[in-house]
Write a structure and sequence with these properties.
This protein is an all-beta fold. About 0% of the residues lie in helices and about 50% in strands. The chain is globular and about 40 Å long.
C-alpha cells in the first residue's frame, strides 16, 4: 500500500516554529519529487514548498525566507521547517509525491494553527 503520513502539526504562537514530517511507504521514494501544500478554510489548496529528486527547491512567495523543505531519502521522509509563523499560516498541511507518468499522491494532512 502506498501511504504518506504527515506529523508535527499543532498549535503555536505567532513567531514560533514547527517542523512537519511526511513519512512515505510503498514507493521508491528517491525518484519522487515531494511537496507540501496547504489549504485554509474557504481557500484553494496552494503549493507551499517543493523539492525535486535532485534537490532543487521552490517556495511560495508568502513563505520564502521562513520555511525550509528538505528530504532524507534514507528515511523516506520529507520535512518542512516552519519558522517565524504568522496567523495566515494557519491551515491544513498536506504532503504530496509525484513523478512523471503517475498520478499525484496525497497524505491525510496535519493541522497547523497559529494563534495567541
Amino acid at each position: 500500500q502506498v501511504q504518506l503520513v504527515e506529523s508535527g502539526g499543532g498549535l503555536v504562537q505567532p513567531g514560533g516554529s514547527l517542523r512537519l514530517s511526511c513519512a512515505a511507504s510503498g514507493i521508491y521514494f528517491s525518484i519522487y519529487a515531494m511537496g507540501w501544500y496547504r489549504q485554509a478554510p474557504g481557500k484553494q489548496r496552494e503549493l507551499v514548498a517543493r523539492i525535486t529528486r535532485s534537490g532543487s527547491t521552490n517556495y511560495a512567495d508568502s513563505v520564502k525566507g521562513r520555511f525550509t523543505i528538505s528530504r532524507d531519502n534514507a528515511k523516506n521522509t520529507v520535512y518542512l521547517q516552519m519558522n517565524s509563523l504568522k496567523l495566515e499560516d494557519t491551515a491544513g498541511y498536506y504532503c504530496s509525491a509525484d513523478r512523471v507518468g503517475t498520478s499525484r499522491l496525497w497524505g491525510q494532512g496535519t493541522q497547523v494553527a497559529v494563534s495567541s
